[in-house]
Amino acid sequence: MLLLVAVSIDSIVSNPRFEWDVVGDYLFDDRILDGLVLTLELTVAAMAAGIVLGVLLAVMRLSPNPLVAGASGFYIWLFRGTPVLVQLLFWNFIAALYPEISIGVPFGGPEFFSIQANSAITPFVAALLGLGLNEGAYMAEIVRAGILSVDEGQHQAAHSLGMSRLQTMRRIVLPQAMRVIIPPTGNETISMLKTTSLVSVIATAELLYAAQLIYAENYRTIPLLIVASIWYLALTTVLTIGQYYLERHFGRGSARELPLTPWQRFTRIVVPRHAEPATEPEASGR
Amino acid sequence: MLLLVAVSIDSIVSNPRFEWDVVGDYLFDDRILDGLVLTLELTVAAMAAGIVLGVLLAVMRLSPNPLVAGASGFYIWLFRGTPVLVQLLFWNFIAALYPEISIGVPFGGPEFFSIQANSAITPFVAALLGLGLNEGAYMAEIVRAGILSVDEGQHQAAHSLGMSRLQTMRRIVLPQAMRVIIPPTGNETISMLKTTSLVSVIATAELLYAAQLIYAENYRTIPLLIVASIWYLALTTVLTIGQYYLERHFGRGSARELPLTPWQRFTRIVVPRHAEPATEPEASGR
Amino acid sequence: MTEPMVRAEQVHKRFGRLAVLKGVSLTVMPGEVTCVIGPSGSGKSTFLRCVNHLEKIDAGRLSVDGQLVGYRQEGDKLYELREREVARNRAEIGMVFQHFNLFGHMTALQNVCAAPVQVLGIARQEAREHGIELLRRVGLEDKRDAYPSQLSGGQQQRVAIARALAMRPKLMLFDEPTSALDPELVGDVLAVMRGLAESGMTMIVVTHEMGFAREVADTVVFMDGGVIVEAGTPSELLANPREARTRDFLGKVL
Amino acid sequence: MTEPMVRAEQVHKRFGRLAVLKGVSLTVMPGEVTCVIGPSGSGKSTFLRCVNHLEKIDAGRLSVDGQLVGYRQEGDKLYELREREVARNRAEIGMVFQHFNLFGHMTALQNVCAAPVQVLGIARQEAREHGIELLRRVGLEDKRDAYPSQLSGGQQQRVAIARALAMRPKLMLFDEPTSALDPELVGDVLAVMRGLAESGMTMIVVTHEMGFAREVADTVVFMDGGVIVEAGTPSELLANPREARTRDFLGKVL
Amino acid sequence: AGCGSEDDESGGTATTSAPAETSGGGAAAAGTIAIPDALRGKGTLVVATDPTYAPNEFVDRDGTTIIGMDVDLIDAIGERLGLEVDVQRATFDAIIPGLAARRYDVGISSFTDTREREQTVDFVTYFRAGTSFYVREGGPDVTTLEDVCGEKVAVEKGTIQATDVQRQNRRCATPADLQVYPDQNGANLAIQSGRADIGMADSPVAAYIVKQSNGMFRLDGEPYGTAPYGIAIPKGSGLARPVLEAVRALMRDGTYMAILRRWGVEQGAIDNPKINGAID
Ligand SMILES: Nc1ncnc2c1ncn2[C@@H]1O[C@H](COP(=O)(O)OP(=O)(O)OP(=O)(O)O)[C@@H](O)[C@H]1O
Ligand SMILES: Nc1ncnc2c1ncn2[C@@H]1O[C@H](COP(=O)(O)OP(=O)(O)OP(=O)(O)O)[C@@H](O)[C@H]1O
Ligand SMILES: [Mg+2]
Ligand SMILES: [Mg+2]
C-alpha cells in the first residue's frame, strides 16, 4: 500500500511530461495570483449569499402555509433546474431582454425608477447574482435535510416554552441541525471554488480561466492545469481544516465522543496519560 | 404576487429576442436528443458509481482504524480538491503522461500486463472515471453526515444484538440516515446533470455541448441555450418528483407526519373527510 | 365566582381514524392540583398536549385562564390565533415531558436560561442566577455545565423540570415527571412539586405516584379509552372508586 | 464445579478523568438472577455495558461463560478479539436498554425479527412467528405493524424486551427495564421476567422494583460510587443491610 | 432598441458591396465617417473577443492586455471612427448574446463569415484564412483534405475546419473520426496524447501552434481553401457600414498591410471588404 503510493509519487515526479519546471515558473505568476484572489472573493460572496438564501428558502419550504412553501419549491426547482452557465449569461445579458430595469406600475402605470441594465449589472454583480441565487437553491435542500434531522421533540419543547417558530428555528433547531448541514455545505463550498470558473463566460478571469488564458498563449496545458490544481488543493485543505473544527464546535453535546484534534492526538502521545489536559473530560460526550 | 408572475411570463413569451420559433425547431433536433441521452447515461452511471463509492468511503472514514480512515480522508481531499475539468482531462489524456498502462513489479521487475492507454480508456470511460471518482468524494461527505445524524443508541442496540459493524450500517443506520442523505444527494444528481457538460473537454457531446456545437455554427446562442434549459428543467422535474417519493418512503416511522402526496391532497378535497383511505392513519407518525 | 384556570368541554381529538380523546370535560380552578391517572394509551399525554396547544383539538371547547386555547372569540365567531399569540399563551404554561426533550446543544444551565432570556427578555445575568437557583432545587448545581448526553435519564428529567419552572408559569403540566427518576430522587422532586402546589401553583399532573396524588391532589381524574371515567377527591376516588374500570386499574397499581 | 456465567474481577472503567467503575467484582452462576440497585450515577448502566462489551474496560478481568469479554487468552497473553468474534459473543447476551433504542425505521415486529434473521440466519417465516409470539407475551400483538414513534413509552419498552428475547440469549441484561412502564403493565413484564428466571435464564437486572428483587433475585447487589458496597441474598441485604450507605439508600427507596 | 431606419444595410441580402458612394474622395480622415448618434455620444467602441486564439487574439504576458492581429485592426478601425476602443474578454458563448444585449458593439475573434451566421449578425469581412494541417512528430502524413478520411482529426468547435471535415466525411469511404473540442487546447492535447492524429486550424494559428510546441508538432501538407473572417456586428445597429468604410480606409493608407505584416499573416490580406461576404 505504502509502496504503491511511493511508486506513483515517484512516477509523477519523474515524468517529464508534467514539466515541473514550468509548474514552478507559473505557480506564483501574477495572473494566477490575481485569478486566485477573484476566485476567493467570488466563492466567499456567493456562498454567503447562498447560505442566507438557503436558510430562508428551507424555512419557507417547511412552512405550513402552502403558498409560501410552494413559492420556495418553485424557486428551488427553477434554479436547480437550469444550468449555471445559462443563469450567468442571463444576468450578464439581461439587457438583451430588458434593456431597462424599471420599477413601476405595470400595464402603462407610472414608472418610479428606471436604470440601464448594462450599467447596473457589472460582470462581477452578474457573477454574484448567478452563483449566489443558484447556490441558494442547493443550500435550501441541504438546510431542509438538516432541519428534518432534528427530533420533533425539540420543536415541541421549544414551543411549550413559548418560543415562536423563528426563535425555535434559530436558537434550538438550526444549531442542532448544523452537524448534518456542515458536511454537504463543505462540499458546496469546495464545488463553488471550481464553479466560479464558469464566470469566465462573462470574462472575469478567476483562477482556472487565468491558467487557460496562459496556456492559450503558450500551449503548456498540462503544467498550467497542475498549477491551478495545486492552488485548488491548497484552498480545499484550508476549507477541510475549517470544516473539521466547525464540526467539532457544533458537535458539542452530541451523543458521541468528539474525535481528538490532531493537536490533542499529538499531546496525547507526548504527554503521559494521567497528565491529560484538564479540559479533556468535559469535551467528550457519552 | 400572482400578477407579478403573470407579467413576467407575458414578457418572456412575447420578447422577440428569445426567438421561440428557433427554440421549437431545435427542441427535438437529433443532435440535441443524442446529447440528452448521453447526459442521462453519464448521470446515471456516474451517480451510481459515486453513491457506491461514497458509502464505502464514508464507512471507511468513520472506521476506528486510523489507516483506513486516513486513506479515505486522503481520497476525499484529493478528489474534492482538484477541478473535475482537470480530472476529466487527466483520464482522457493519461496517454500523454503514461502511454502504456502496465501492471508488474516496479523497479525493473517483470511486467505482467500492459495495454495502450488510449485503447483501454475510451472517452466514455474517461468521462465515467472522472465524474464517478469525483462524485464519490462528495457523496462520502454526504453519507458521513447522514450516518452521524443517527442516534448512537441505534448502533449500540444493534451491536448488543450481535450485529457486526457492516450489518449495523446496512440494516439499521443507513436506512435511517437516508432521510438526511436524500436531499443533498438530489442536489448532487441535479448538479451532475449539468456537470456532465464538462465532458465536452474530451470532445463528448452531451446535452449542453450539443447545443453549443449548434450555436457555434449558426450563432443562435439564446434560443439554443433555452432548448438546453428546457430539457434540464424537464429532467430536474422528474428527479424532484422521484426525490419526493423517496423521501416519503424513507420517512416512514419518523417522528413527524408525512406530508400528503399531491394525489392524496387531491382526493382529500374531492372525497369527503370521513371517507379517508384506510391506509391514512398508519402513515402518520406521532 | 373566580374564573377556572382550565376549562375543557367535550374535547375531541383524533389521529387519522384513531379517536384518542372522545369528549373530555374537566375544570381546574386556580391553585388546584389535579392528578390524572389511567392506563397506557388512554390519552393522558394527548390531553395535556391539547391544553398547551401543541395539538389542535377537533371538536369541543378548551380555555385556559378564561382565554380560548388557540382561538379568539369575538361575538359568536371564533378566529384562529396567530402564531405569535399562541406562543405568548404557551409561555405562561409550563410543561414537563415524558421524554425530557432537553436541548441537546446546550448545557443544563443554558437549557434552563434560554427561554426566559429569549421569550421573556429577562437579563442574561438575572436569568442565570435564577437558573442556578432552580438547578440547586432539583439537586443538580454541580451538573450545570454538563450536556444532556452526559447526564443520566434521571438527571435529564430534573433539568427539564427546572427549565419549565424558569418561565414562572401560571399553570404547570407534568407528563409522568417522575417515571424516569430513581426512587431515591423521586421524593426530592415530589417535594419541589409539593412546594409549588402550596405556593398556589395550578397544576395538572399525569402520574402513577399514588402517594403523591393522595397527599397533594385536590382532584384525581381517572381516564380510560379517551374519556374521563371518574373524577373526585383523592379519598373518594382512590379509596372508594364508583366505576368498575377504576377499581380494576387501582387494583393493579396499588 | 460449574463455571460461573459472569465473573468480574476488579473491573475499572473511566471516562476521561471521571472514574465510573473503581474495582467491581461480581460472580453470577448459571441460572442465577442478580439484581443491582444503587443511586443515580453509581455506575450500574456502565457496568452492564461493560459486560456486553459495549464499553472497553480499563483494568481488571471480565468473563462471560468462561470466555473473556473482548479478549482471547492464549497461554499468558491476551489478544484482542476481532470484531466478528465480539459480535458473535454479544449475540448470546440479550440487553434491554433504559432508553429502549428501538430501530425507528422498522415496525414493532420487524424490530423483533431483524436480528434473528440477520445474525442467526433463522428463516424469515420462523422468525416472524416467534416474533408474533413474543409480542403477544408482552401484550402488544395488536401493535405489531406500528412504528416506534407511534407507540407510547411503555409500549416501546415492551417491544425492546421482546426484541432481546428473540435472540434466545444465554444471559440477559436489563437496565431499568420497567422504569418507563405504566404501573399496571410493570406486573405483566415482571411476570415475563419471572418466567424467564424460572426457566433457568441467567439475568442481571438493574432495577428499582424492590418487590421483584426480593421475590426473584438470588443475589442483590448494592452499588454506590463505582464500587459494590454490599451483596447478599435479598432477605439479608434488603432486610438487614450491614453498611450505613445501604441502609440510607433503602430508607429512601422503600 | 429599434432605430429601424438602418435595417436596410443588412437583412441577409448578402454582398451589398457599395464601392460607389464615398470611394472617390481621398483618405477618410479620423472622425469623418458617419456613425450612429448613440455611439458618437458614448464615445467608446466596446469590443468583445475570446483571447484564446494566438496569434489572432490572446492575452499578453501582463495578464490583462489583449493583443493580436484582430486587436490591432479594431484599434485602427476605432481611430478611424473617432472612438475610444475598449476590448473586453468574453468566451464564445457570451459574445453573440452580448452583441444582442448591446453590451458589446462589435465582436472580433477570428469569426468566419458564413451564410448561416449572417442570419443572426452582420459581418464586415477583413481577412481570408486558409486551413493548415499539423500532426504529431512521427504521426501520419497528410497532404490534402481527402487524406483525413479514416483518420482521427481534432478541431475546435465553431471553426470552419469542423464544417469542412463534416462535409468531407460525406465523400469518404471510411469517414474521419472527428473530435470537436471546446477550445484549440483540447484539440492539441488530444493530438499530443495520441487520442487524435491530425490537427487542423487556420493557417496562422496552426503555424503558431507548431512554433510553440517545442518540436512536438509539425506542419504537414498544403494549406487549402480560404474563408473570410468577419467583424460581427449586431443587426440594426447602424454600425456595419461605418466599419466597412473604416476598413477600406485602412487598406487605402497602408495601415492594414502594416498590421498584417507585424503578425506575419500577410498571405491572408484581402482587398475588397464586404458586408456579409460569405462564400458558398
Ligand atoms: N460516555 C460518558 N462520558 C462521560 N461520562 C459518562 C459517560 N457515561 C456515563 N457517564 C457518567 O458516569 C456516571 C455513571 O453513569 P451510569 O449511567 O453508569 O449511572 P447509573 O448508575 O446507570 O445511573 P442512572 O440510574 O441515573 O441511570 C454518571 O455520572 C454519568 O454522568
Ligand atoms: N401522532 C400520533 N399519531 C397516531 N397515534 C398517536 C399519536 N399520538 C398518540 N397516538 C396514539 O394515541 C393513543 C394515546 O396516546 P397517549 O400518548 O396520549 O397515551 P398515554 O395515556 O399518555 O399513554 P402512556 O401512559 O403510555 O404515555 C396511543 O394509542 C398512541 O399510540
Ligand atoms: Mg403518555
Ligand atoms: Mg443507568
TrEMBL record, chains A, B:
Its main location: membrane. It comes from the Bacteria. The keyword Transport applies. Residues 36-243 form the ABC transmembrane type-1 domain. PANTHER family: L-CYSTINE TRANSPORT SYSTEM PERMEASE PROTEIN TCYL, MEMBRANE COMPONENT OF AMINO ACID ABC TRANSPORTER. One of its GO terms (biological process) is amino acid transport. It is found in: Cell membrane. Belongs to the binding-protein-dependent transport system permease family. Keywords: Amino-acid transport, Cell membrane, Membrane, Transmembrane, Transmembrane helix, Transport. One of its GO terms (molecular function) is transmembrane transporter activity. This is Polar amino acid transport system permease protein. GO terms for cellular component: ATP-binding cassette (ABC) transporter complex. It is a multi-pass membrane protein. NCBIfam families: HEQRo_perm_3TM. The chain crosses the membrane at residues 38-62, 74-95, 115-134, 198-216, 222-246. PROSITE patterns: ABC_TM1.
From TrEMBL, chains C, D:
SMART domains: AAA (SM00382). PROSITE patterns: ABC_TRANSPORTER_1, ABC_TRANSPORTER_2. Keywords: ATP-binding, Nucleotide-binding, Transport. It catalyses: a polar amino acid(out) + ATP + H2O = a polar amino acid(in) + ADP + phosphate + H(+). Residues 6-250 form the ABC transporter domain. InterPro entries: AAA+_ATPase, ABC_ATPase_HisP-typ, ABC_transporter-like_ATP-bd, ABC_transporter-like_CS, MetN_ABC_transporter-like, P-loop_NTPase. Coiled coil: none annotated. The keyword ATP-binding applies. Signal peptide: none annotated. SUPFAM superfamilies: P-loop containing nucleoside triphosphate hydrolases. Its EC number is 7.4.2.1. CDD domains: ABC_HisP_GlnQ. GO terms for molecular function: ATP binding; ATP hydrolysis activity; ATPase-coupled polar amino acid-transporter activity. Belongs to the ABC transporter superfamily. This is ABC-type polar-amino-acid transporter. It comes from Conexibacter arvalis.
